[in-house]
Specification:
The structure is a homodimer of 342-residue chains. Chain A is α/β, with parallel strands linked by helices and 342 residues long. The first copy, chain A, contains 13 helices and 14 strands. Chain A folds into three domains: 44 residues, no CATH class; 122 residues, 3-Layer(aba) Sandwich (Rossmann fold); 128 residues, 3-Layer(aba) Sandwich (Rossmann fold), CATH 3.40.50. The longest helix of chain A is centred in the N-terminal third of the chain and has 16 residues. Chain B binds a DNA duplex (16 and 16 nucleotides) through helix 2 and helix 4.
DNA sequence: TTGTAAGCGTTATCAG
DNA sequence: CTGATAACGCTTACAA
């Protein structure tokens, strides 16, 4: 049998193979990886070389089996197709990589007949890997279950309010400030009848609507109408249509998302009101930057949210419960013009 | 010490706890999961009940440590932000779920200073989980390394041509047919000077360009110009601009992606040529369906690609090397009108 | 049909 | 600094 040949790399080399080749014990090899400074330089080098020759890589699974791992961090993302969340994830991954950690991203949310549910199987697999740190990106449902599955992990939530998870710091954009920027910008351009397209689709939407009301008041403007819309293009189109067809239509629309804003833009265009009705979006996704769209949008600073979250995750120090990132407004042609005087 | 109390669920229940509670041995519990029919109904029920009471879930990591797992399948996606790939992944996951398998998605590709590279650490972690089956979605670089890391796994490639992986079946859209649909549609509308926006950005782009040339010939049309563009909006905008500013501009543009088409649409609009120059996209992503865009696009049938891939993955039977999914054309206003006569 | 024992690859403990 | 030895949670021959 060929298998009898010890040199026949049947499959991956193990720590034993490395030890044998380097002429040391298994434990020394293990040490050489986990606490290099505790091993004499000569031996360390021999181990390194043996490992290289054999193409050895430590088995993550075996490691996770008997100790919590601080070198891997789980990233649970609520919706893998949401570009906002993707940006945050990418930034966080890059930052984690800097600290020498391996971030693996899993979409642990499944679409159920009635809404979204946490995929318990996937969650338990993540838990089995025993990551010492976990990043939750977006509004993952049933966060309590996450904590139960990983009672000892440090958890940070990005771009969502932690629910049932009162020990997890969160990093998110300051939506009130963001909406405020949009409203102030429009007011500055002379708009006085500003309406909101949004308010539906979850707590984030509701918070943005409240921020809208507050921002109008802060600018000394009369209360604005709200066309109820979720974050979708269809919703924005419908809501904007209703607002524009009213007796006294607004001259500017502040939408709760870029998609809703794009729907609103279509409604505006359909009525021949382009360059008469301003529109602003939210999130400054790549959509806003498309030449065909060219939408003024609030940039929540997703990359910074990701970085800050990674930072909070990497430390062991206690952290403030809430971290607000300051948004900025990216002005494009959808709102550049001055409000027409009635 | 509280720990002395065996009932104090320190953390997750293990197979031992279940065995103790059910009054059987560990192995029987294991058997009850892996080969239920080999265990007497009474014992099986007792095990089931004990497991439920303790909230026991098998530890995936421990399982993977000593046997290849056919219940989990790894999904390697080339670019988590590509909506086309996301659709395929979602469809595949749903189909895998039907077969009782757990599909976990990992983006194993990292952006390097020079291009994309496979994230070897992540790949080896996937390999450590020992999935019996692996789905590669999109053009993952260095596929050879994937095979090396998992020599015994069944691999299927979706939406990409397997490179260095001659034993893996692939499922992808029939791009030649797709481009053919777009060209035929335009020809039918009276267009005779049709140009292509694309050709750059990888083998897929090149294949689409060849298909474009062939399609023109098939329609009996003269060869068309190619404005070199990658899949991005910026690329499409630039390339379309050049084509439109030529001495004899085309009356229709066939783009290699929706994004490139959207860039082209902007170039068309900027020149006041809307409703005079038709544009078609490729992939029929949600972008094409936005009212503001309303782009005719080739739908490659991503959901079906995902389903077929999952199907091929789930069986053990040898499969044909290449599976082509038939695309269809979704006609929208960007190309509905009849070509203006010169 | 059930139980015993030996791994899977690694880390932790604790004598040398 | 090194090297046995015992976990980690599970599967899987092999015995009973």
């Amino acid at each position: 049998m060929v298998n009898a040949d010890p040199g026949a790399a049947r499959s991956r080399a193990t720590i034993r193979d490395v030890a044998a080749r380097a002429g040391v014990s298994k434990s020394l090899v293990s040490l050489a990886y986990s606490a290099p400074e505790a091993v004499s330089p000569q031996r360390r080098e021999r181990v390194r070389q043996a490992a290289e020759e054999l193409g050895y890589r430590p088995n993550h699974v075996a490691r996770s089996l008997n100790s919590m791992r601080d070198d891997i961090v789980g990233i649970l993302v609520a919706d893998s197709r949401n570009p906002v969340l993707s940006e945050i994830v990418d930034a966080a991954r890059a930052a984690l990589f800097e600290t020498g950690r391996l971030g693996f991203v899993l979409t642990a949310v499944a679409l159920d007949e009635d809404g979204t549910r946490l995929d318990i199987d996937l969650l338990s697999m993540v838990a089995d890997l025993r990551p010492a740190r976990l990043l939750i990106v977006g509004s993952v449902p049933e966060m309590r279950l996450v904590r139960e599955a990983m009672p000892d992990a440090r958890i940070v939530v990005a771009s969502a309010i932690p629910v049932d998870l009162d020990d997890a710091p969160s990093v998110h954009a300051d939506d009130a400030a963001g909406i405020g920027l949009a409203v102030a910008h429009l007011a500055e351009r002379g708009h006085r009848r500003i309406a909101h397209v949004g308010g539906a689709g979850g707590p984030t939407a509701e918070a943005r609507t409240r921020a809208f009301d507050a921002a109008l008041a802060a600018e000394g403007l009369p209360p604005g109408r709200v066309g109820l819309s979720d974050f979708t293009e269809r919703g924005g189109h419908r809501a904007a249509g209703e607002l524009l067809d009213a007796a006294t239509p607004p001259s500017a629309l502040v939408a709760s998302s870029d998609l809703a804003a794009i729907g609103a833009l279509a409604a505006v265009r359909d009525r021949g009101l382009s360059d008469r009705v301003a529109v602003t979006g939210y999130d400054n996704t790549f959509l806003a930057g498309l030449r065909l769209v060219d939408l003024t949008s609030v940039d929540p600073g997703n990359a910074e949210i990701g970085r800050r979250a990674a930072e909070l995750l990497s430390t062991d120090a206690p952290a403030a419960r809430e971290h607000r990132i300051v948004p900025r407004l990216v002005i494009r042609s959808s709102s550049e013009f001055v409000a027409p005087t009635d």
